[in-house]
What we know:
Blueprint (H helix, E strand, L loop, with lengths): L6 H24 L2 H10 L3 H15 L8 H9 L1 H26 L1 H8 L6 H7 L3 H10 L4 H9 L5 H26 L5 H28 L1
Helix pairs in contact: 3-5, 4-5, 4-10, 5-6, 5-9, 5-10, 7-9, 8-10, 8-11, 9-10, 10-11
Amino acid sequence: MPQAFRIRDVVMNLLTLAAVLGLLYVLARLFSLEEIRAWIESAGMWAPLFLVVAKASTIVIAPIGGAPLYPVAGAVFGFWKALGLLMLGDAVGGTVAFYLSRFFGRSIAEKMMGKERGMLSHAIEIGGTPRGFLLTRLSFFALQEAAAYAAGLTRLKFLPFILIHMVVGLIPTTLMTALGTILTEDTGALVFGLILGGGAVVSAIAMLTFLTVIKKR
Length: 217
């Protein structure tokens, strides 16, 4: 099985996300979320700036996992504000990764990718055209840093790169941000279950797409 989808890594990521969601649920019941949000507002531009930089860093520095950021941001900033800030972070991080590899070559991309650098060859082979990058971005939606660094090592132009990068990223970002918002609001279990189910379906489709592409190659 390709390195990105080792069972152990998938299980650990799911357990980490479950722990974060559980902690958010408990904190929302024990403390006043409105007070936390008021404190965030009082921080002015610094709290939103920190979120944007933190999200961008999860793409630029691949070993930093970004999954917990989505529900936490949804809980403390509210859904729409969190979604906008996270998408801005995705845009900044994707742009930096793209141009780092384009200007400094594969060595810097492999260094920033860490243990996930083995995925670069697959992404480079597939993603040299807008259509190819769309397939790569869908396949690597949980590893957007691999797709971004690989795109910079191809002849793909920046505009189609960033458009595809952002449009595909909107799906998981919306789902994960909604989880944090739902857990801290009086929302029914059915809605929460639908969000989780939707995320599982998207993940399964992406995994199958990636494995199919690798098999054909």
